[in-house]
C-alpha cells in the first residue's frame, strides 16, 4: 500500500509544469516542455545581470540569439 505522503509528493510533481510556460514537461527537456523554453530560461539566466541596467523585458528573439551565440562559442 502506498504511503499517503508519497502519493501527495508524486501528485505534486506531476502537477508542476514547464518553468517557463506551465505546459506539461517533456522528459527530454526537463524541467521544461520543449527546447524552446529551455533556451528561453537559459537566456534569462545569462542575460539577467546586464539586463538589470534596463527595466525592459528581455525580448524572446534576443534571448534565442544569445543562447545560440553561447552554444557556438562552446563548440570551438
Ligand atoms: Zn514551456
From TrEMBL:
SUPFAM superfamilies per record: Glucocorticoid receptor-like (DNA-binding domain)
Gene3D superfamilies, sorted: Erythroid Transcription Factor GATA-1, subunit A (3.30.50.10)
Signal sequence, start to end: none
Cited function: Inhibits all the catalytic activities of DNA gyrase by preventing its interaction with DNA. Acts by binding directly to the C-terminal domain of GyrB, which probably disrupts DNA binding by the gyrase.
Self-association and partners: Interacts with GyrB.
Family that this chain belongs to: Belongs to the DNA gyrase inhibitor YacG family.
Protein known as: DNA gyrase inhibitor YacG
Taxonomic source organism: Nisaea acidiphila
